């Protein structure tokens, strides 16, 4: 998919264009080879620069080439609705061309880019390319924070199901969420390196307002990193705690089953003794023998059950 947007100097509203123009934003989402070739020719950059961003494991980085600067950042997205593999990160490439074009390339749709396309981001203009780049980092930080908040809600939902659990399914879900937090933390740290390079090196021309916005982006990214670390540490302690709870729940069940086995073994044992081929005297001659044996068996079982319960063994 290819879409082209542009702000005019005398109009604050963003417009959709049918062709590539100066000061325009070209948005590529899972583009075809024809779309890649069209954009590459239109902005004057090699096709390989666009194609290399369309790799699932492309790392955040800054690369300067003749005629353009490539910045790659990692952004979160919802992979599916199951807790097992709910969130992941994927690269978003921003190519700032020297001939007044901005190209964003991604394998997936990102909702926060729609906010730019609909003109919902303050002080966003397609002709202010450095500011646009920094605003993308700021918006991605907001997405990270909101995603981390959703993950925290998922963790709390799973906690409620763990109190009486005796299987490993919930712990496996905890482990998968822990892996997601590690991926987030790695991506955020890599994004931080990119921001630090933009701040410390003369990669792109910046005004004082852009530098102040960049400092805000660095702070927001660090806040996301700290939040990820906090959630990871909480999840680590939660996994240890609930691993102990699951083990304790299993021990309680085994204790109950062992106590029940002891209680119900008493009638079996008495019946086994009385079923031997030996004289039983008055017990075998009375017409109430069966009733007496049943009453004695259940009475002994009841007394043993009470004793086990008093010793907290049942």
CATH superfamily membership of the largest domain, which one? Answer: CorA soluble domain-like
Number of E strands: 7
Q: How many distinct folded domains? A: 2
Strand ordering within the main sheet: 2-1-3-7-6-5-4
Uncertain segments are none
CATH second-level architecture of the largest domain: 2-Layer Sandwich
Q: Which percent range fits the helix content?
A: 55-70%
Integer-rounded radius of gyration: 34 Å
Class from helix and strand fractions = alpha+beta
- Total helical segments: 8
Beta percentage is 15-25%
Main sheet specs: 7 strands, mixed
CATH class value of the largest domain:
Alpha Beta
Mean pLDDT: 84
| CATH topology descriptor of the largest domain | Beta Polymerase, domain 2
Shape: rod-shaped
Order of helices and strands: EEEHHEEEEHHHHHH
State the separation between the terminal residues, measured CA to CA.
66 Å
